[in-house]
């Protein structure tokens, strides 16, 4: 396939900013003395704090997701067994902390983000339960 001159020009115009960005990121990493950037460290720390809350308040966290799923299912008018499954799963778990955060403490998200977060949390729970069985 041969690109015409105008198409080549357009291709290079779209590719150039990407290459500059890639070069800037490589130079930034090379210039830094530490292996991790401060953004990476902050991201990992926030993830770990959320993960420890999840591990310590797993039952109440899933109950919050269950209640929100009931609302979402009711608003969309669809039939779903997910709230019942979350309920049976949360009954099998226990909270390690005596006072876990109430559902109102968690920020409201769009439905897509909410479901992504739920999927991520369930994935973490599955992987941690599988690794503890070994």
How would you describe this protein?
This protein has 134 residues and is mainly α. It has a domain at 48-133. The protein is 74% helix and 0% strand. The chain has five helices and no strands. It has helices spanning 5-31, 38-56, 58-76, 82-92, 111-133. Helix 3 packs antiparallel against helix 4 (82-92). The longest helix is centred in the first third of the chain and has 27 residues, at 5-31. The chain is elongated. The model has no long low-confidence stretch (mean pLDDT 68). This is Interleukin 15, like isoform X5.
- List low-confidence stretches: none
SSE topology string: HHHHH
Supply the helix-strand structural class.
mainly alpha
Estimate the mean pLDDT confidence: 68
Oligomer: single chain
- Give the count of helical stretches: 5
Strand content: under 5%
Q: Between the first and last Cα atoms, what is the distance in angstroms? A: 54 Å
Provide keyphrases for this structure.
single chain, 134 residues, mainly alpha, elongated, Interleukin 15, like isoform X5
How would you sum up this structure in a few lines?
This is Interleukin 15, like isoform X5. This protein is mainly α and 134 residues long.
């Amino acid at each position: 396939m041969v690109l015409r001159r105008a198409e080549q020009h357009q291709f290079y115009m779209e590719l150039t900013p990407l290459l500059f960005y890639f070069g800037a990121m490589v130079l930034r990493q090379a210039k830094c003395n530490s292996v991790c950037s401060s953004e990476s460290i902050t991201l990992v720390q926030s993830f770990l704090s959320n993960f420890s809350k999840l591990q310590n308040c797993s039952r109440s966290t899933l109950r919050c997701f269950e209640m929100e799923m009931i609302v979402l299912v009711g608003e969309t008018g669809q039939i779903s067994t997910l709230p019942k499954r979350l309920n049976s799963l949360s009954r099998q778990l226990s909270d390690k902390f005596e006072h876990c955060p109430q559902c109102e403490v968690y920020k409201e998200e769009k439905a897509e983000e909410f479901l992504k977060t739920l999927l991520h949390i369930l994935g973490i729970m599955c992987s941690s339960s599988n690794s503890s069985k070994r």
